[in-house]
């Protein structure tokens, strides 16, 4: 089980424990917030240690270290005469969080005072009114409730004693005032222990007392279901000569699993990340985003998590607009309690999601060989296809953004975008491939024709007279900016010539674009550059990882590896093992709006390593695997273990190494035979090796020519 330990300043690191329904997280200096989605139970959680006479222990209120693992976090407290560990975790689908305290050394009569601010509220924008709290003597806890009795929370411990009392005078009756609960640890195997449960209920059939009991009585070992989930999520393993890169890759897989969240009313899906609520009852971005989910799905597919990828795609289709075929953009954890679509503008705001959805679904079907998924959802896929085609301009065959909608650029809304037009090329090619598998030759031919027409039109529309790519057009007809992520989209669509692509890639290495921690979203030399602006000069993990993958796919391995390795320190910067959303363009410091656990940053980092660094591509239906590694010059070996060639048929381990003037590849096939295509960097004119690989061990050797 991977773990990550941090020391000072522990209070200024974002620390979190993740479960399918429960979550605890935050910066220690602010206190943690505790959730059982979609209910916020409390915020401002912190501990204070007291002598028997009630006086605080000096210098004991802040942890000196914290160790995180996929199932939770353990904070350590130390002071003269005191040594305490605090384990915080959420378990499987239980709607709550458990805290276990173990006191290894303490003065006589030690008490632990738990400070918190009660919430009992739904994730924004839903809300519950009329809260109150009372002491539940039987449960030995604080019972938070509201008049209907539908929503309740219980903060309870068998070791609880003194506690806040209800106060109905006009100066102390506010529900949101800080509360406390004192615990007196009891003997437990040579130490003294106390256990605290934060439980809630929001659905018929749930009972807050039953949940609290289940949390309190659960064994110390992780829940078997949680262990199984982690094993599935980390079955594939990338091992390189760089220990820091290995750790970042392993934790990127953990981050993807920790983003999988289950909502009793909405279902299970990938959330966009986690960060502080900032008082808004929304631990950013702990709700569902369609586009973010697709970025994560690409990483799931690349790492062979086909079952989870299919579940995410099905979750996205679950809320497809039945009238238009449009895919959704944002879904709050509390949408099940609201008229979300009718009353809020967030659900069907982005037209680009449908285009990306078709492309990612085709990636999934190709890698997994899962034709069953396509057949089961074919009517919905056709509806998404029709929606995309409904936006196509008859004059040039490129999509337009309807009034009141937006595409990828939220900060500078355009009527059409190069990135959206490139996504249309990808979507049309994807639909052609999927139509082939479904035996619809006419649809396949139409989709290929649409893709080719769009590819040809992109150059005419988005290449300005100065020979630069522009991002798109405003509604008044004026051009969008030059040099942006759209430049890479021009390459991906096939609209850029090889010479133009080389010029774009060279610009990515320019000092006003490339920083030590990634690529600026806008060159520092641009007139409107702002290093602190969200999209006008800051450094995005997603964009930098995507650029690295594009460089690898273009055969520019040295430049790609150099860029990708600059992202490795992101995993150690704040939330251990997780990557921020966006950094300042002037220093390796999170941009002020950034989220410390941004799922798509981790997902794109992992996708780039698998599709670019290792050059892996599976064709599940035909049982074929491409391996085209492009490691940095200083790496003489690389291993990828647990690679799946399709959804069925076992796994294969690949161990590559460079020896003098030859490359050696050892394969250990734990499943059915497959066909391997091995492309080796340094042999640009040599044909790739194709070999049928049977079960067991196979060794292949290629002579190398120096790059």
TrEMBL record:
Coiled coil: none annotated. GO terms for biological process: carbohydrate metabolic process. Residues 414-566 form the Mannosylglycerate hydrolase MGH1-like glycoside hydrolase domain. InterPro entries: 6-hairpin_glycosidase_sf, 6hp_glycosidase-like_sf, MGH1-like_GH. This is Mannosylglycerate hydrolase MGH1-like glycoside hydrolase domain-containing protein. It comes from Pseudoxanthomonas winnipegensis.
């Amino acid at each position: 089980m991977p773990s990550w330990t941090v020391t000072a300043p522990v209070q200024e690191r974002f620390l979190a424990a993740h479960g399918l329904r429960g979550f605890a997280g935050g910066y220690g200096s602010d206190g943690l917030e505790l959730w059982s989605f979609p209910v916020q139970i409390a915020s401002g959680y912190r501990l204070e240690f007291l002598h028997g006479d009630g006086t605080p222990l000096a210098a004991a209120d802040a942890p000196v270290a914290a160790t995180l693992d996929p199932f939770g976090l353990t904070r350590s407290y130390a002071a003269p005469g005191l040594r305490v560990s605090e384990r915080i975790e959420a378990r499987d689908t239980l709607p709550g969080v458990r805290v276990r305290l173990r006191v290894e050394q303490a003065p006589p009569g030690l008490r632990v005072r738990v400070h918190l601010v009660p919430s009992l509220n739904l994730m924004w924008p839903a809300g519950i009114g009329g809260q109150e709290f009372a002491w539940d003597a039987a449960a030995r806890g604080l019972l938070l409730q509201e008049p209907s009795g539908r929503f309740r929370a219980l903060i309870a411990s068998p070791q609880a004693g003194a506690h806040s009392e209800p106060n109905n005078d006009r100066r102390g009756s506010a529900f949101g005032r800080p509360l406390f609960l004192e615990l007196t640890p009891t003997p437990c195997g040579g130490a003294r222990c106390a256990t605290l449960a934060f439980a809630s209920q929001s659905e018929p059939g749930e009972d807050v007392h039953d949940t609290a009991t289940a949390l309190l009585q659960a064994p110390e070992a992780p829940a078997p279901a949680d262990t199984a989930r982690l094993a599935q999520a980390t079955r594939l393993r990338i091992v390189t000569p760089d220990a820091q890169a290995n750790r970042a890759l392993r934790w990127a897989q953990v981050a993807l699993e920790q983003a999988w969240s289950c909502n009793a009313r909405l279902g299970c899906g990938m959330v966009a990340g986690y960060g502080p609520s900032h008082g808004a009852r929304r631990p950013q971005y702990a709700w569902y985003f369609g586009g973010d989910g697709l970025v994560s799905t690409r990483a799931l597919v690349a790492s062979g998590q086909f079952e989870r990828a299919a579940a995410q795609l099905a979750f996205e289709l679950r809320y497809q607009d039945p009238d238009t075929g449009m895919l959704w953009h944002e879904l709050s954890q509390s949408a099940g309690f609201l008229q979300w679509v009718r009353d809020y503008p967030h659900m069907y705001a982005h037209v680009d999601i449908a285009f990306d959805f078709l492309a990612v679904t085709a990636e999934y079907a190709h890698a997994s060989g899962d034709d069953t998924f396509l057949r089961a959802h074919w009517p919905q896929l056709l509806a998404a296809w029709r929606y995309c085609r409904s936006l196509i301009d008859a004059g040039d065959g490129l999509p337009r953004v309807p009034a009141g909608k937006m595409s990828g650029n939220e900060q500078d809304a355009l009527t059409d975008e190069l990135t959206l037009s490139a996504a249309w090329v990808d979507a049309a090619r994807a639909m052609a491939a999927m139509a082939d598998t479904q035996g619809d030759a006419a649809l396949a031919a139409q989709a290929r024709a649409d893709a080719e027409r769009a590819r040809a039109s992109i150059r005419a529309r988005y290449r300005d007279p100065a020979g630069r790519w522009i991002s798109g057009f405003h509604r008044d007809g004026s051009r969008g900016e030059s040099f942006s992520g759209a430049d890479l989209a021009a390459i991906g669509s096939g609209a850029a010539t090889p010479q133009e692509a080389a010029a774009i890639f060279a610009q990515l290495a320019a000092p006003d674009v490339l920083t030590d921690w990634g690529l600026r979203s806008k060159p520092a030399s641009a007139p409107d550059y702002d290093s602190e602006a969200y999209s006008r000069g800051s450094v995005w993990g997603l964009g930098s990882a995507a650029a690295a993958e594009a460089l690898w796919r273009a055969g520019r391995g040295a430049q790609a590896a150099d860029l990708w390795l600059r992202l490795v320190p992101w995993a150690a910067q704040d939330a251990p093992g997780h990557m921020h959303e966006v950094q300042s363009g002037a220093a390796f410091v999170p941009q002020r709006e950034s989220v410390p656990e941004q799922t798509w940053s981790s997902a794109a980092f992992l996708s780039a390593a698998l599709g670019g660094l290792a050059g892996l591509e599976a064709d599940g239906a035909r049982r074929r695997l491409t391996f085209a590694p492009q490691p940095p010059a200083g790496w003489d070996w690389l291993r990828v273990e647990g690679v799946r060639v399709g959804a069925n048929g076992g796994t294969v381990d690949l161990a590559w190494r460079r020896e003098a003037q030859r490359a050696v590849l050892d394969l250990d096939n734990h499943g059915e035979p497959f066909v391997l295509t091995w492309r080796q960097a340094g042999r640009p004119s040599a044909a790739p090796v194709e070999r049928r690989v049977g079960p067991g061990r196979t060794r292949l050797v290629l002579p190398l020519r120096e790059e």
